[in-house]
Amino acid sequence: MDTKLIKTLGDELYRAMTAGTVVEPLTNRYPDISIDNAYHIQQRLLQCRLDAGERIVGKKIGVTSAAVMNMLGVYQPDFGYLLDGMIYNEGQSIAASSLIQPKAEGEIAFILKRDLMGPGISNADVLAATECVMPCFEIVDSRIRDWKIKIQDTVADNASCGVFVLGDCAVDPRRIDLSTCGMVLEKNGDIVATGAGAAALGSPVNAVAWLANTLGRLGIGLKAGEVILSGALAAMSPAKAGDNFRVSIGGLGSCSVRFH
After folding, report:
1. Considering the domain boundaries, does residue 31 fall inside one?
2. Which residue range is the domain that position 255 belongs to?
């Protein structure tokens, strides 16, 4: 895939995001698109957002659970970038109309106090570099029509990132076993999903180590102060105006978000 087409597709995804529209799956139109091509398209989409005045505040890990891997037919995680325009506060209301086809995922967020530069990053390195962890929501969104995605589609589309919401409880990750903590996701008062930390590559710490080492091979580091979303702990749940969500994670507390 040549650089001109990569730029064209990155610009197309950016226009779709800003206009609230969808595009046909890239994999339908370009069956030979590779994951490497998709990351180059993601970089172009990211550059469009940076040129518009946003700034990077962290990174996200996707495709960490067996269910999503099986759905996409790929057995490796992916990553995308978090920007300051994506941040919402605990309990804040999100306009459903500001997103295209949003779904809510309960996750554990890591806030870093030191840089992490792979390769060679261990779980102990991740814990030593982490200021705190907290429950969070990632509101995933797709610019691809009807979520008809393969791994290349979601990678190109910044790993299907929409916005994210951090809880108001910060916990030292060395005081809790992040692989065994249970998660309950409620929608409008009803339990819609349950999970545990182990859903994210066996442990959210594994997921952050994977990200640091994968990005490190590309010459990209995780920076002190960044937010790292470590991957969904259960299935995503569609969101629309009027919906209220709450995620509770054992030992970490809870996070809530509503849509209007």
Report:
1. no
2. 55-259
The two tokens of residue 102 are: 């949003």
Please report whether residue 139 resides in a domain. Answer: yes
The predicted structure's pLDDT at residue 66: 80
Cross-strand bridge partners of residue 80: 60
The mean pLDDT of the chain is 95
Q: How crowded is residue 8: how many other Cβ atoms within 10 Å of its Cβ?
A: 13
* Contact (Cβ atoms closer than 8 angstroms) between residue 106 and residue 233: yes
Return d(Cα 87, Cα 135) in angstroms, integer.
Answer: 14
Q: What's the rounded mean pLDDT across residues 54-61?
A: 98
Q: What is the number of domains present in the chain? A: 1
Tokens 């969500």 sit on residue: 245
Is 105 within 8 Å of 232 (Cβ atoms)? yes
User: How is the beta sheet containing 190-196 ordered, strand by strand?
Assistant: 93-94, 253-259, 244-249, 182-187, 190-196
- d(C-alpha 133, C-alpha 248), whole Å: 13
- Which pLDDT does position 259 carry in this prediction? 98
Assign residue 43 a region: left if phi > 0, alpha if psi is -120 to 50, beta otherwise? alpha
Contact 231, 62 (CB under 8 A): yes
- pLDDT tens, 201-235? 999 999 999 999 999 999 999 999 999 999 999 98
Beta-strand runs (E) in 20-176: 56-62, 78-83, 87-89, 93-94, 103-112, 130-140, 161-166
DSSP assignment letter at 98: G
pTM over 0.70? The answer is: yes
The reply to whether 50 falls in a domain is: no
Contact 108, 146 (CB under 8 A): no
φ/ψ bin of 135: left (φ > 0), alpha (ψ from -120 to 50), beta (otherwise)? beta
Tokens of 126: 């991740």
Domain CATH for 124: 3.90.850.10
Does 13 reside within a domain? no
